[in-house]
Amino acid sequence: MPNQRLRDALLRNTLGFDEVAKATGVDPKTVERWITQDRTPYPRHRHAIAAMVRETETYLWPDAVAPEKKKEINESEVVQVYAHRHAVPQDIWGHLIEQSKISISILVYAGMFLVDNPALIRTLRQKAEDGVKIRLLLGDPASREVARRSEEEGIGKSTLGAKIRNALAVYKPLAEVSGVEIRVHGTTLYNSIYRFDDEMLVNTHVHGFMAAHAPVLHLRRLSGGDLFETYAESFQGVWDGAKPPKW
């Protein structure tokens, strides 16, 4: 079977066989076999290709890393564990946004604590103008999933939907900014995900608790790791099924 992930990664980055061959020091025919015959490159070649396409080795070659090594890498991807979201230092959020050079991706239901920052919209606009791709993914305020989550948090059936509408109103000025895309989703959200290039804050959702009182994982992406990639793929799955909001 061909390696479709590697093929797609090269296409997205407009990289041909010759360019990859030159970067890895192999023949272009070898690069072709890595794709068409799903041959696994040597570790040094995997490192080089993963860096070129900004993907992890685990994503491009899921079976290439030994289980023992993968376990070690996964543990190293965890930078910090916070017992509650409100325990994450405020300057961490600002630092992660400011240092982002490629993309910012946010998956929440409402995430009202973010829009409490009066400088957020201005900062995101500037980031987009600087070439950072920004994806904002909020809950669909009319969905059953949002109403159910609102009841589970003990704040009433319609409260969370109202919070989302307020958040959307704050984000609306960004809707026409090039590089910013806003969508809404109707999924059962198990985690809120905040990705800033190769770092991520994952706010787990706990039944009966508001998100601010649930744990947060601070992750940093490592080549060969699974943990960061798992949440990145989860975000993409929700994004693909989401739709533009009704302003």
What does this structure look like?
The chain is of the alpha/beta class and 247 residues long. It has 2 domains: 61 residues, Orthogonal Bundle (434 Repressor (Amino-terminal Domain)), CATH 1.10.260.40; 169 residues, Endonuclease Chain A (Endonuclease, Chain A). 45% of the residues lie in helices and 16% in strands. It is built from 12 helices and 7 strands. A 7-stranded mixed β-sheet has the order 1-7-6-5-2-3-4, sandwiched between helices. A hairpin with a 2-residue loop joins β5 and β6. It starts with a helix and ends in a 7-residue tail after the last helix. It comes from Lentzea alba.
Structure in a nutshell:
The protein is of the alpha/beta class.
